[in-house]
Amino acid sequence: MVREAKNEKDADPHLIKGIVGSTAAGATYSSAALIVGVVADLVANPYFLQVICEEIRAKHEEVNGNWDVEAFNSLEKLDSAMKQTVRHAPGTYLVYSRVMLNDYILSDGLTLKKGQFVCISGYSRANDPALFPNPEEYDALRAYNHNLQDHRAQPFSGVLADDFRWGAGRWACPGRYIATLMAKVILVKLLDEYEFKLVGGKGSPNALLHEFVFFHPNTEVLIRRREINSGIVY
């Protein structure tokens, strides 16, 4: 990165260290939070957990144990469950953060000043009943059952989503394909090989720090290996 820098500022080792560190930390946490969130939501909703596990077992038999990218991408019910988890508990409530380069007056007279940050509430949109009927209801198969054609055209990794999970345009998350595949690789193994139980029957509400959403650290989960599983090996 130092060699490819276009100017002295971009070549500053301290700046580069901060960028690499924050990117690695953000990518690691966000991926882990997604996986934990999907598991917790399914465990709290046994019917959907059973449906997803059956899909995984059926796919394992269909591909004769040879899991490739296409196999993971075809797990449409798991993909739908991932959409639902992110809609209810996104990494952040605010999206599309931008900084004003110049003053700008909106049509209603509101003035945005140079240097100010502007953003929109992705959480409000993700819970808009006009877009998601009964938005507070957890339905892992919401996307799958509502419009399967659209679900296939815009899977979890798609950017044309009503909940703004990846951003859009040139600033859409470039790692969304890898993140989605990685999450499915881990989820398939976890859900097929282990049983989970929330202590007390339900988890704690998500923790919120500023606009950032976290899986509550006080949530306790019991885990044990299934006596019978598909024996999935990558």
Summary keywords:
234 residues, alpha+beta, two-stranded antiparallel sheet, two-stranded antiparallel ribbon, 43% helix, 13% strand
Describe, in short, the structure shown.
43% of the residues lie in helices and 13% in strands. It contains eight helices and eight strands, in the order ααααββββααααββββ.
Mind explaining what this structure looks like?
With 234 residues, this protein is α+β, with helices and mostly antiparallel strands. 43% of the residues lie in helices and 13% in strands. The protein contains eight helices and eight strands; from the N terminus they run H-H-H-H-E-E-E-E-H-H-H-H-E-E-E-E. It has helices spanning 13-43, 46-62, 69-73, 76-88, 122-126, 142-146, 148-153, 176-193; strands at residues 94-99, 104-105, 111-112, 117-121, 194-198, 207-209, 212-214, 221-225. The strands form four sheets. Strands 1-4 form a two-stranded antiparallel ribbon. The mean pLDDT is 90.
